[in-house]
Amino acid sequence: MDRYLNHHLKISGVSQQLFADAAVTAIQQGSGGLLRRANHLARGALIAAAHEKNQIVSAEHVRIASTELI
């Protein structure tokens, strides 16, 4: 999942790691390995981190994002 997220960050022009290791694990567990769900969790977690003005996405941000998914 780490390589998958970093790949998407790279193609979007981001060169730094934005997801903490615990966040990557939370995305993996929360998505059940389904890439579309992982994308939704990652995007929601990025939004939650930005809302709190954090530069690194934490597992808590992933948890917040998971409550927003249907």
Largest sheet: none
CATH C-level label: Mainly Alpha
Which structural category do the helix and sheet elements fall into? mainly alpha
Query: Helix tally?
Result: 4
Mean of residue pLDDT values: 94
Strand runs, count? 0
Keywords:
single chain, 70 residues, mainly alpha, Helicase, Ruva Protein, domain 3, globular
Written overview of the protein:
Helix content is 69%, strand content 0%. The chain has helices spanning 2-11, 21-31, 35-51, 59-68. It is globular. The chain has one domain: Helicase, Ruva Protein, domain 3. The protein is mainly alpha-helical and 70 residues long. The termini are far apart.
What is this structure, in a nutshell?
With 70 residues, the protein is an all-alpha fold.
Layout: helices, strands, pairs:
Blueprint: H1 2-11, H2 21-31, H3 35-51, H4 59-68
